[in-house]
Each structure stands twice: as C-alpha cells, then as structure tokens.
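Appendix B. Chain record.
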Amino acid sequence: MDANMRREIILEHYQNPEHRGLVDCKDYEKIRTNNTSCIDDLTIQIKVKDGHIEDIRFDGEACAISTSATSIMIASFIGKTKEEATKILENYEAMLDERPYDASVLGELNVYEDIYRQPNRKKCALLPFRAIHQVLEESRWD
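Structure tokens predicted for this chain:
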C-alpha cells in the first residue's frame, strides 16, 4: 500500500470514525484506556453474543493515529469470534513490532505497517489493541 493511500485511510477514519459513541446498556463490557504521555483517552465498549463480537463502540479524545486505529480495528472485529479477533490482534502486534505477520488477516490495519519508524506513534496505534485485547481475554463468552 502506498503512502498516499495509507494517509487517506487514516484521515478518513480519523475524521469519520466508525462506531463512535457509547451506549447505555449493561450487555456491553467497558474499559477506559489512555496514553499517559499524550491526549489519548478512550472508553471502549464491547458486546459479545453467541460467541461472536456483536458490537464495539468507543468515545473519547485521541490523536489521528489512535482514533483511526480504533475505528479500523473495530470494523475488523464486528462479527468475529474470540479466536478470529485474537488472530488479528496477534498479527497486528507482530506487524508493529517488526516481526513476521500475516498481512492477509489485517485488511485496512495494514496502513500502520510503517508505524514502527515513529516509536512515539506506535504507542498511539497500540492503544485500542491493548484495551480490546484485555476485554477479550476477560470477557464472558456465551
């Protein structure tokens, strides 16, 4: 993917993030996550039903990288099982850590393939990853 395409995708998900806005419903598990060194402060809600991620919502203040990574990651997870979501998370983390990974499972998340070149931005790209990973590990899967 060329640099211009990456920038367009990141900017689109930053300006028009999908699944933004929290809901008042006890069926969602909620986690708050932030980067202590910048403005990134997000709350993420995940609803799991019948062994699949039915919905994920988020809100808060964050930079372009954190906001777009959250939006893209959420779109990647809707309808997935825990195993499918975990596979995406593992490959995403490997990509950001410059380890071998399967780009075919990442879809639009591949826009962050060069983020390792900017270590301070890597933290932003990992913010939703850590929160969603934690919820998936602790979640009650029906």
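Further analysis of this model is presented in Appendix C.
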